[in-house]
Structure formats: C-alpha cells, structure tokens
Design brief:
Blueprint (H helix, E strand, L loop, with lengths): L6 H6 L24 H6 L6 H14 L5 H8 L6 H6 L8 H13 L5 H13 L20 E2 L7 E4 L2 H5 L4 H13 L4 E3 L9 H6 L2 H17 L4 E4 L2 H13 L7 E4 H10 L11 E5 L18 E3 L5 E3 L13 H9 L3 E3 L18 H4 L1 H16 L5 E4 L2 H14 L4 E4 H8 L1
Parallel strand pairs: 1-3, 2-3, 2-4, 4-5, 6-9, 6-10, 10-11
Antiparallel strand pairs: 7-8
Helix pairs in contact: 3-6, 9-18, 13-14, 16-17
The structure holds iron/sulfur cluster (2 copies).
C-alpha cells in the first residue's frame, strides 16, 4: 500500500475534528477529553489526525513539497491511533493508515528526522532500538538457567524486546517474567543472542524497509526453531508480531500472546497461584500498541468502487480498536490479593497515549514528557497510589516524567505486581 491508495479516505475527511477528542459519549470531564496528544499540545488543526489527512490530500493533488514545518508536523505524532478510533466511532474511513504511509513516503524520499536516523542506525548495526546498547542481549538471564529456544524445543518462546534486554533499569521485567513462568511450570526459552528487534518501532518511525528486514529475519529464526507460541511483555513487540507481520503476510500460524494474556490464561487454568497479598490501589494504563492498535489485522480483498464516497465490494470490515487486549491485564490485576483497581477517565480504545510512541521520545523528548505528565495527572485523579502498565516503553516514559514533576505516584509493569504476589 502507498499513500495514493488512501486517496478516498483522505478525501472523505469532512474536517469535523472529532478525531481530536474521545467520543462525546465517553467524555467524563473537559480536562480528560482529548484523544490526540499532538493537537492538545500544538493546538493547530494541521497537528490533528484530520489535519494530517488534509495535508496528504493537498500533497496528492499538488505534489509533495517537504518544508521544515511539514516535517515538524509529521514527526510530532506518536502514531498512537487515538484519532483513528475516535474518527471511526462515526465514520468508515482509515485515518492512521494514511498517516503511516505519509511518514513512510517522507523516509523513502530522504526527509527523515536526525534523531530517528540515529535509532535506525543502531538497529542496522546492532539489531536493537536502544542506541549505544552495550554487552550481550541476554546478559540479564545470566545464572537463571533459561533454555535456549534456538537449540532445544520449548512450548513457549519468550521474546524479551530491546528495552527490556538492554536497559539496566528495565531488565528487572525480563527477570520477573522468567521467574513467573518458572513458578507456573511453563516450558519456555529465549533466543539469547539470536533475538533481534521486532521492527515495530522502525515501522512507526516510517522505516518500512528496515521493519520488513527485521520481520523476515525474526520469522526465519522462529520457523527454524520450530516455535509455535510466542509471548512478549512489550506492547510494541506484541503489535509487530501479531498485527504488522500478519498485515505483510509474514506471521503464518504463529500464536502471538502478550504476557498479560498468557498470565490470565495460566491463572484461569490454576497453573499460576497468586497467594501473597499486595496492598496497593492501582490504575491501569492501556498501552496504545496493546490496546486499540493490538487489534488483529483484518485482511480485505475486493473492489474499491469510486463515487461521491467510494464503496467496497465486498464491504470492508474496519479495525476500530474494539478488539484490543483490554480484559486480560485487568483480570490479572483483579486476581492479585489486596490490589484495588480504579479506572481512569480515558481507557481501552480511548486511552491517552504515554507519549513515547512513534519515535517522539527520541525526536522530541519534551513533547513525550508532556504527554506522560498529562497521563500521570489523570492517574492521580483516580486516587490510586500507582499506575500500572504492560509495556516497558510506557513505564520508562512515566518514570522520566515523574522524576521532573515531583509526583509521588508509583509506576509498575504488571509483571512486577504479579512477581510480588507469587
Ligand atoms: S479524520 Fe475523521 S474525525 Fe478527523 S476531521 Fe476527518 S472525518 Fe473528522
Ligand atoms: S496518531 Fe496520535 S498523535 Fe498522531 S494524530 Fe493521531 S491521535 Fe494525534
């Protein structure tokens, strides 16, 4: 697909601005009504989902002209999909897909962002999205006796992810996950130095070719190792393996589960017992790439019939974020004795982004922090002591924002809560 394939969608945008906010029916108060961090921060239509579509329409009609201002708009977007689900509450049209394609076109024509180039160079050289990563990818696993899934058959392959593998502050999540899986008696293994970046973040940044290279490399390795079920604790990794690999017909019949789905299953089957009390009031943050963007890909083939509004034959089924992973993390939290869950105003497909996605953390850390601070404030308004998420990138961005804001809200990944309960 290319931006040209979405001409009908960009032409359908009626500039109603519904993509800026969560649907009116879901709004609980004016302070938590925005869906799009970019428009909330920059307050000019071009920075909204609809504004980006209008720019794309103009470019398609009059040719692509890349100014600094245009690139500022393109790269100050978390690719969080809030605009997409809000628009689709009423409309049958794609919003995020053309935004992805626009960014891909920028990269393909050499209009990149230097901060994102640096991350991609790290991916090309070291197979990781953590620039300057030192040491071995699986150094965190030393002494834990974890099987090498590329050398022996296992029931479950644990894909650790770049941040959890290399960032010393977040390796604790890999260790907690391994400890929990062992406790539940799961036959699992990791790829050690054969694990490589899923490529999902490269795709979000617009580097489609780099994403495809990573996807092919990973699927070759997994097929060779005979992996049938892959579990990951990273929301970006989950979305890449589950949705993007499927979109590009690379996933095959690989079963992809987020750790929260797998833990909910183990708890239901009685294989994982959470006995220890964890006295904590928490609120749960739905990561965009696990929630609305984690919804399975829907393949559509048919005819696109142009007219005043184009129609699809057979009718196209739209992904509206409804079938993302929302209940399993909540079920896991509710299974932990002593944990009380309070919900924020914007949840599930209408959750506010943590701010780290789409390369914004690298290209505009101030905007990433601002977005996280908004979410921290929303979490605090529930009265909870802690915000719990299910993605290391969210946890890191929240921690960075808290460090500066002086908030005393605690931040956890869900596996840290489960680890406390076993
Ligand atoms: S993208 Fe959708 S919600 Fe936004 S202005 Fe266009 S039609 Fe309205
Ligand atoms: S993807 Fe997110 S940040 Fe970008 S326009 Fe849509 S809602 Fe705004």
């Amino acid at each position: 697909m290319a931006i040209e394939d979405y001409r009908g969608d960009v032409e359908m945008c009626c500039r109603c601005s519904a993509c800026k906010h969560i649907p009116l029916q879901m709004v609980k108060g004016v302070e938590h009504s925005y869906a799009c961090p970019s428009i909330a921060r920059y307050n000019f239509h071009a920075y909204s989902g609809g504004g980006r579509l209008l720019i794309a329409k103009e470019m398609l009609n009059s040719g692509f002209k890349y100014t600094d201002k245009l690139l500022d708009i393109v790269y100050n977007c978390q690719m969080c999909g809030g605009c997409d689900t809000s628009c689709k509450y009423a409309m049958d049209m794609e919003v995020l897909e053309p935004i992805y394609e626009f960014r891909i076109r920028c990269v393909e024509t050499g209009h990149t962002n230097p901060a994102l180039d640096k991350v991609i160079n790290s991916l090309r050289k070291q197979g990781t999205m953590v620039p300057g990563a030192k040491g071995k990818r699986a150094a965190w696993a030393q002494g834990m006796g974890i099987k090498d899934a590329t050398k022996e058959k296992v029931d479950v392959y644990y894909h650790v992810g770049c941040l959890t593998s290399y960032d010393k502050d977040y390796q604790k999540l890999a260790r907690a996950t391994a400890k929990i899986l062992k406790k539940a008696g799961v036959d699992f293994g990791i790829g050690y130095e054969n694990e490589s970046c899923c490529g999902g973040r490269a795709f979000q940044m617009g580097y489609k070719d780099d994403f495809l290279k990573q996807a092919k490399k990973n699927m070759d390795m997994l097929k060779k190792a005979g992996v049938k079920t892959l579990v990951t604790g990273c929301a970006d990794g989950y979305q890449a393996f589950k949705v993007l690999y499927d979109k590009y017909n690379l996933k095959g019949d690989l079963e992809v589960l987020h750790i929260t789905e797998y833990l909910a299953r183990l708890i239901k089957e009685g294989k994982l017992k959470l006995n220890k009390k964890v006295n904590l009031t928490v609120t749960y943050h739905d990561p965009c790439y696990l929630g609305r963007l984690g919804e399975p890909w829907i393949h559509w083939q048919g005819k696109k019939i142009p007219g005043y509004k184009f129609v699809f034959d057979p009718p196209k089924v739209y992904r509206r974020g409804t079938y993302g992973v929302y209940e399993p993390p909540r079920e896991v939290l509710k299974s932990v004795p002593g944990v009380k869950l309070f919900e924020m105003d914007r949840i599930k497909e209408y959750a506010w982004c943590c701010g780290a996605g789409g390369g914004v953390n690298e290209s505009n850390p101030e905007f990433a922090k601002w977005t996280a601070t908004e979410r921290i404030e929303e979490a605090e308004s529930t009265g909870a002591e802690a915000i719990v998420t299910a993605c290391p990138w969210c946890e890191k961005n929240f921690n960075q924002a808290i460090k500066e804001s002086g908030s005393d809200l605690k931040v956890y990944d869900i596996v840290e809560i489960v680890e406390k309960a076993i």
